[in-house]
Amino acid sequence: MTFFVHFWGTRGSIPTPGHMTKKYGGNTSCVEIRCDDSLFICDGGTGLRELGADLLTRGTRPITGHFFYSHTHWDHIQGFPFFTPAYAPQNTFHVYGTAQGDKRTYDLLSGQMRSEYFPVDFGELRSNIVASHLDGGHRVIDGCAVSYYEQQHPGRSWAYSFVKDGFKVVYATDNEIDLTLSDPKAVVADPLAPRTIPDAFRRFCHGADLLISDAQYFDDEYLTKVGWGHPRATTVVDLALQAEVKQLALFHHDPMHGDADVDRKIALCRERAARMNPALQVFGAREGLELRFG
Amino acid sequence: MSSHKTKNDWNDESTSEISVTLLPLSTEQAVSVLEMVQGPGAPRSYELYRVEMVIGRAIDADIPINSTDLSRRHVLIKRQPSGQHQIQDLDSRNGVFINGVKIHAAILHDGDSVQVGSLLFVYHEGRAIS
Description:
The complex is a heterodimer.
Chain A: E1 3-9, E2 30-35, E3 38-42, H1 47-55, E4 64-68, H2 74-77, E5 92-97, H3 104-111, E6 128-133, E7 138-141, E8 144-150, E9 158-164, E10 167-172, H4 184-189, H5 199-205, E11 210-214, H6 219-222, H7 233-242, E12 247-251, H8 259-276, E13 281-284, E14 290-293
Parallel strand pairs in A: 3-4, 4-5, 5-6, 10-11, 11-12, 12-13
Antiparallel strand pairs in A: 1-2, 1-14, 2-3, 7-8, 8-9, 9-10
Helix pairs in contact in A: 7-8
Chain B: E1 33-38, E2 44-47, E3 52-56, E4 63-64, E5 75-79, E6 85-89, E7 96-98, E8 101-103, E9 105-107, E10 113-116, E11 119-124
Parallel strand pairs in B: 3-4
Antiparallel strand pairs in B: 1-2, 1-11, 3-5, 5-6, 6-9, 7-8, 7-10, 10-11
């Protein structure tokens, strides 16, 4: 068994093309997880367009893909109308809701292709697009166990974990963990003190070989953005440490952050991790990066 | 409309001499370089002048380096149509690390450190070696 994780879009909120974001990239959220022959796609931000183009270069066999959307805010769905494989009749894509009857994501994907928003109607996509679901919490797809966890975000959002043959990858973006801490006042009193992550989320992430996590803000920025749905990057380090994660990918970079800012954010997070457990590896997710497990 | 031909008439195909200044090559046109900062013969620089270049222990690698912790064909560096360089681990025994992170593939950016076995390189984007 081999997991490949490829970052196609790592930016939060809005695409940010330009030389200031050249290193980490300006496309919004899209991560490809390949598990043996299975294709899992986490979010369909603008990075999805490039994933689609790349899939077409990999061969002529019909493509089957499984879409897991954290939620349906613009920066997570905007790439879908430009996902070229969706226009080919031999391909099949499953769009997962949480439970039977949950078609929120499927409906939003089709809704954003109404003529007021986009010139091609959803009905004109010739691939087979199926509204699927995770049976209320957990489902095995091609031998890979996929679970979800509801996060803290305006309008709701979901994290997903993918487990096969002892390897585990967690995708958890758009999650204001800071609002769920059991001791938020302690954080204000002493920012260096460990922040206690709720048990349920800690267990969800526990032992992951890779945690891809929203890490949008610096500590000082967050103070004016409470309730916007994103965490302090430093809080995510504490999550990774308490969940005994092996590698942490800082993801969903703030659109106001240039490459130098992201570098600084990574350095601060590495410093925090090193104080508590030097074994935790922290890095910044960047476009074009592909990791392999197994 | 007057049929009188003026100096600025669009149909006038005569030309005037202009002065042209040659500009330096842009960074996109200059050759990117891998600078070996740790390893046999370091410091040493390798120009990435081909579209695809393999680093490895094999004598026929594009960048052959005699180091026992390198695989015969260890890593491929491929220039993309965009001009960027992609680095890819060729299922090597000891892996490839960018800025300390073990990767399977990545787009290289100026200043990235590339560890291949016990060798350490720094990637310089579009900068010719002197």
